[in-house]
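In this supplementary section we document a worked example of the pipeline. Step one takes a protein sequence of length 254 as its only input; no multiple sequence alignment statistics are reported here. Step two produces a three-dimensional model, which step three serialises into structure tokens for compact storage. The input and output of this example are shown verbatim.
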Amino acid sequence: MKYIIIEDEQLAAKRLRQLVEELRPEYEFKAKFDSVESATISLPALSYDLLFMDIQLADGISFDIFDQIHIEKPIIFTTAYDEFALKAFKTNSVDYLLKPIDHNELKNAIEKFEKRANTAENSESQIESTQLEKLIQSLNPTGKERFVVKVGEHLKTVETQEIQLIYSQDKGTYLFTLSGKRFLVDYTLDKIDDLLNQAQFFRISRKFIINMSYIKDIIAFTNSRLEIVIDHFDEDQIIVARERVNEFKSWLDR
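The serialised model returned by step three reads:
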């Protein structure tokens, strides 16, 4: 079996390779990539049977790779961020391992991969419902806790609980905070929506995600839509899309 490691932390990649060599010395290590860009460029030209893939990479999230090239080989995801677990298993994943990687858990993941290979299950087969249920239970119930943003030449963190609103504007995605400040982030609105606590945040339209704690008022708007009022936000009207109104009301009334 030939395998590839996609990991931007050198020590983590080295440890993973050592563990695989201990468990399966007959496996052949083919390559290591540390970014979305390098993996996207090189993977199509390589022959391999299994990918070990970290989710947070040097230049983005590994799911971006799937947007650019087709991958049909099995994947064992390795990451420290368990809020990505459900999305990971919606791809052609064999297993999902949290760092630091445990020897026995890696052993079980490799055995699962081998079982699928030996029984001729193709790499795009559906994950069993029991696995999906287990994953859902393991997800971080509070969602993403903070975002790293750049302010001039400095990096700072913005706590998710302080975010009143997240919106897209001029091809950028912005966090609007309790202090009335906005910060540009390197995520699309779709990706942020996957990371947030769905009990606290709701995507009301293609443009806006709102935090329930900071809704100041809800006003009836034209064409059966609703307008949301958030303190100090005056960039644009915050309108609940007509097709989302009923779901939004149910979300508020749960």
